[in-house]
Amino acid sequence: MIDSGTDYWFAMRVRHSNPIRLMRMKELLDNEAGVAATYVAMRFQRVSPTKIDLAPAVNNLIFVRTSYDCMKLIKSNKTLYEPLSYIMRPVLVDGGNTRSEILTVPDRMMNDFIRVTSEANDKVVYFDNLSYACKPGQEVMITNGSFAGVKGVVKRIKGNVCVVIPIKQTIAVAITGLHRSQMVYITEKEEPCQTIEV
Fold first, then answer.
1. pLDDT at position 41, please?
2. pLDDT greater than 90 at residue 26
3. Which of 9, 20, 82, 171 is the residue whose CA sits 20 to 30 A from 159?
4. Residue ranges with strand state E in the chain
5. 115 vs 2, 85, 172, CA distance in Å?
6. Cα dist. 66→24, 56, 60, 166, 191 in Å?
7. Farthest CA pair distance, the chain
8. What per-residue string of b and e applies to 174-195 under the rule 16 or more CB within 10 Å gives b?
9. DSSP of 108-149
10. For residue range 104-153, what is the model confidence (pLDDT) as tens digits?
11. How many CA atoms within 13 Å lie on the side-chain side of 78?
């Protein structure tokens, strides 16, 4: 059960967004009392034939670390935060029915995701096919190199072994160019993405 006073990583959408609006939303949230951190995944993109620049990997996705109580208060300010919405996740309940609950990301998964996406590294690629990236698979931990300690799921992309860090229904990133000798299999299950009943 989610504790409404404990900080969690919320995956949030910014409706009708573009890179400028997303970064303005990040700046607003960074200045809110009670918000411990925010994160927007960035990647290099070609903006003209001669210029490559950093831009958000997804134009409408921001991660916010705060409590559920604080997030409710923030979202009640319709003037500033009307475009900000929770990412909802269907959860199976008794009788085979589903209900929508607010998605939160476990600290370990979020820390690994930030570590991988905040480093300029040509071995890091964003996944377009979320349904494939988020399918269950064998969990591993990278044992050496610049990403030692990062946990993810082994996948094959174009015949090559890679480790994918998927955040359900939102975004996934893959570390390519790895050899199986650089990873160990994990037998205990990682904490899944959590949900908050609304």
1. 93
2. yes
3. 171
4. 7-14, 37-39, 42-48, 51-56, 61-67, 84-86, 88-92, 98-105, 124-126, 139-142, 151-157, 160-167, 171-175, 183-185, 194-197
5. 25, 25, 13
6. 18, 21, 19, 21, 19
7. 58
8. bbbebeeebbeeeeeeeeebbb
9. HHHHHHHHHHTS--TTEEE-S-HHHHTS---EEEE-SSTTTT
10. 999 999 999 999 998 777 788 888 777 777 777 889 999 988 899 999 99
11. 0
Contact 2, 68 (CB under 8 A): yes
Backbone φ, ψ for residue 101 (5° rounding): -135, 155
DSSP 83: T
Its pTM surpasses 0.70: yes
Report the alpha-carbon distance of residue 123 to residue 105 in Å, rounded: 24
Residues pairing with 85 in the sheet: 13
Question: What backbone phi and psi angles, to 5 degrees, belong to 9?
Answer: -90, 115
Say if CB 169 and CB 128 are below 8 A apart: no
The answer to whether 91 touches 98, Cβ cutoff 8 Å, is yes
